[in-house]
Amino acid sequence: MRHVVPGVLLIIAAIHALPLAGVLGGESLVRLYGVDAGGPEAQILLRHRAVLFGILAGVLTYAAFRAELQRLALLAGLLSASSRPWFART
Q1: What is the pLDDT of residues 14-49, one digit of tens each?
Q2: Which of 63, 39, 49, 62 is nearest to 18 (CA)?
Q3: Out of 15, 64, 82, 85, which could bridge 6 as a Cys pair, Cβ 3.0 to 4.6 Å?
Q4: What gap in Å lies between CA 12 and CA 20, rounded to an integer?
Q5: Does residue 2 register a pLDDT over 90?
Q6: What is the 3-state secondary structure (H, E, C) of 23-35?
Q7: Domain boundaries, the chain
C-alpha cells in the first residue's frame, strides 16, 4: 500500500508533463490540441501553461519520493485536474 501513492503521483506527473511539448511553439500546440492556437497572445498563454504544467509535473515527481510532500502534491494534482472540467461547465 505504501507504493500506491507514489505510483499515483508518478502517473499524474506523466499526464501533466505531456503539454510540455507546447513550449516549442505554434506547430507543437496544433499537434497537442488539434486546433490553431490563434494569434501570438494565445500562443504565449498556451506556452506559459505548458511551462506551469511542467513545473507541476516536476513537483509531483519529487513528491513521489518524499512522503512529507505527498498530501500537498496530491491536492495540487487534484486541483489542477479538476479545474478544467469545472471551467468547461461554467
Answers
A1: 999 999 988 888 788 888 888 787 788 888 888 899
A2: 49
A3: 64
A4: 14
A5: no
A6: HHCHHHHHHHHCC
A7: 4-85
Q: Is the pLDDT of residue 1 over 70?
A: no
* Residue 4 banded pLDDT, cuts 50, 70, 90: very high
List the alpha helices (DSSP H) in the chain: 4-17, 26-33, 40-64, 70-89
Which residue shows C-alpha cell 494569434?
A: 39
Residue 76 corresponds to which amino acid?
A
Which three cell numbers mark 89?
461547465
Length of the chain: 90
